[in-house]
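Why show two proteins at once? Because comparison is the fastest way to build intuition. When a single record is shown, students tend to memorize it. When two are placed side by side, the eye starts asking what differs. So, the first record is below.
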Amino acid sequence: EGERFFLDTSSLQAGLTLGKTKTAKFELLVQPRYGFKSDGDPLLDGLDNRGSTAEAGFRTQWSRAGYTAQLGYYTGIGNNTEGQAIDLAFSYSYIHDSWLLVPSLEWRWEDRALVHHLYGINAMQARTDRALYNGKATIITSAGLTVLYEKPDAWLVFGSLVYQRAGDGIRSSPIVGRDDGFMVSAGVGWTL
């Protein structure tokens, strides 16, 4: 099978792959940690912006017979961030003819400092319709399906659908209007 090149502009990664069949991988990475601006949303009126920043960490992955387990640890870096997170994910790659289907489950634990930084309300920001809130550690759960179809002339068509549900530490915040949602992505590529 030919080598594939993937460009991910959302993170900077350096890794080591172990084993002839690429069964284990270890990566060091820096990736964005997104914040929000409070302008324009009445629910966020009067809040300080929670600026985007970066997190650094490591991710390790083990694969065997189509099954993959992944564990990652991340900590905030830069002037405008706090907190730590741990990811645990499982997936299975099912291949049939030119199709690849990958169902997945992921859990992301975020510590109290990270949840408070993103969703907390301090005494100066509290008001009658927005109570004081000190964030608490929580787990975010995601379930997804990625589909890839490879055409004989080296073209790829791919897409994914992910459902994500925030944990109690986020759902309890008075600035969270919805605690779940779907993410959809699609694209076209080619192999060299």
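Second record. Ask yourself what differs from the first in the token line.
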Amino acid sequence: PEDISRIKKTILFRINKTDLIDSKTISILYRQAQYLFKAKEYDFVIENWNKIIKKANWKSDSVKYFGDLYDDLAQAYFEVGKYEEGFKVLTDGMNISKNNFKNLYYVEAYNNFLSHRSIIQLINNQSDKIVKENFKLLEEHVEYLISLSDDDKQKLKKIDNSYFLDVIMMVTILDMLESKSRSASHYPLMSIN
């Protein structure tokens, strides 16, 4: 409890210290999330990660933490049962990412948001329409990842070495739920190449 109080004070001080939060500060704040989640400080994360996201300088190295901060915020919403808000955070993150694909950190973030949104919606028995929409987006993303240059694929692998496997796994799961499903090995075989 005392450590959590200190962590919360540090976070609030850093957030309120400046109008634009730099990557060094975001790195420090991001690393504190694990302690806040262990202490079930979800409301604190929701309130303050929203502020961090709005004040972050995403044009700097902070972009490395873009996906992590949005994922943490969505997770906090899910933990308190605010599923619609969590889905909105992931969808907003996907839209921002999609509009910034020139930066591979956004490609990786989009991959994570889409995979997380898909699995959470699947677990929560969302409509077939939503599952099909996620499947279509995942298929399109797989095609995009395949179309990347070899150089970009290597750079993306340095950002997250399992990025392609994650999206292949999720699209395979959703493909098996389709009435006209391909062979269960269709997408996994793509990952071999």
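One difference worth noting in the second protein: Residues 41 and 76 are 8 Å apart (CA to CA).
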